[in-house]
Write a structure and sequence with these properties.
Length: 148
Amino acid sequence: MNDAPDAVSFGLLGGTVSYGLKRAYLRVIRDLEEALAPHGLTPPLLAALSIAAANPGIAPARLAAAMGHGRSRAAPLLDRLEADGLLERRDGPDRRSLGLHATRAGDLLLRRVTPVLAAHEARMTVGLPDGARDALAAALGTIAASDT
């Protein structure tokens, strides 16, 4: 509990992982949105481009699942990345499927935002004791993977 005079009690939610994650997510996403905006990206666009670049030829449905989105929510992101020349759809191995590939411009943009993302991560984890950042990332990965 925060002992500051203007502190608000979260009652039953105080100290819970789920509400703590929600509050942290809102802070993290606001900071990331501000950091990415000058590069013409949003967090979902960055996620889609990053996953496509790391998994050349990934099917759109698989990318959407990896992002935790349905196909209908991922499609506009992929359309935007393609329109911006950052991603391309190519025929897949069976000619009925498509694979996603980051373009050279997409790869260059990812390289440009790498230090932006690193600075964001540093801001979000400032004050964490040594090793806590890696432990937190691992714990969040475990929570996220438990849905699959």
